[in-house]
Amino acid sequence: MGQYVKYKCDICGYEHVHDLEIFWIDENYEINVSMLLFSTSEEMAKSLVSGYYHEYFCYDCNEIVKEFLISENPSNMNHEDIIHLIESYDNGPKIIKFDNKFQKCLTCSRSLELRSDKAFSLDKKGNFNIEDMILHDYLNDDEYEFWGVYYGYYCKDCKRQINKFVVMQNYGDLDEDSIRNILLKHTNDLTVLLFDYKVACPECEGNLYTLGESSPCPRCHEGKLRLNESLMVD
To answer: Are the beta carbons of 90 and 135 closer than 8 angstroms?
Structure first.
């Protein structure tokens, strides 16, 4: 199930729609961007390459910056070819990243298979969750302190669980030690903690923002975006 959300500026009436969160490269080497639905998840499963899609806004350049995070590459397509295809998707500025999963044990260097792939978050009420959730559920700085992706591995040789937490957004601007301590309270063994939310505009290297409730209007820069419509789509 996906989510269609529309925001509207309270002064000039500018509308911003958020409904896109995944992408895939099909057998014709075309880029497809969509919300995560049952039908699109089937397309992702048979795609050459797939991953998460997110849009930021640069108030300095006054442009939408598209981020493509490649998480699956069953075709073993060359990274340079993937980058070339995504760069040709349109003329707008883009951030292209490859998922930083690891598949080797930190103790014996055995290659590991991924057993668990989940989202984790801490909301502003102090509730911590590791669940199978769509990532866009966490893209709201009014509700969450931070969120990210959890990867779980197990080494058969060392009989050891290998945990990896990748922080994708840190809305509360918490320091690394604070986040590490929070995660340690909710896991038996915090093995790896990485931060992947420090992104800059590829055009001007300025700060990037996720447009949402109370964001400055990207058109008039005077009003605020307000939630106008929200629908769950099957």
So the answer is: no
Q: What is the pLDDT of residues 110-141, one digit of tens each?
A: 878 788 888 898 988 999 988 875 544 545 56
Say what the pLDDT of residue 102 is: 63
pLDDT given for residue 136 in this prediction: 46
- Tell me how far CA of residue 221 lies from CA of 10, 13, 166, 203, 214, in angstroms: 11, 12, 33, 20, 12
Q: Cα dihedral sign for 45, 138, 1, 127?
A: positive
E strands along the chain, which residues? 2-9, 15-18, 22-25, 31-34, 49-58, 63-72, 94-98, 114-123, 128-131, 144-155, 160-169, 192-195, 225-233
Around 205, how many Cα atoms within 13 Å sit in the side-chain half-sphere?
A: 0
CA distance 23 to 25: 7
CA distance 131 to 159: 24
- Give the closest residue to 145 by CA, choosing from 185, 175, 118: 175
As a whole number of angstroms, the distance between CA 47 and CA 72 comes to 9
What does the pLDDT look like over 201-217, one tens digit per residue? 999 999 999 898 999 99
pTM for this model (two decimals): 0.71
Query: How far apart are alpha carbons 161 and 154 in whole angstroms?
Result: 4
Is residue 41 classed as helix, strand or coil in its secondary structure? helix
Collect all residues with Cβ–Cβ distance below 8 Å to 74 and sequence separation of at least 6.
47, 48, 49
pLDDT band for position 160 (50/70/90)?
confident
Amino acid (1-letter code) at residue 176: E
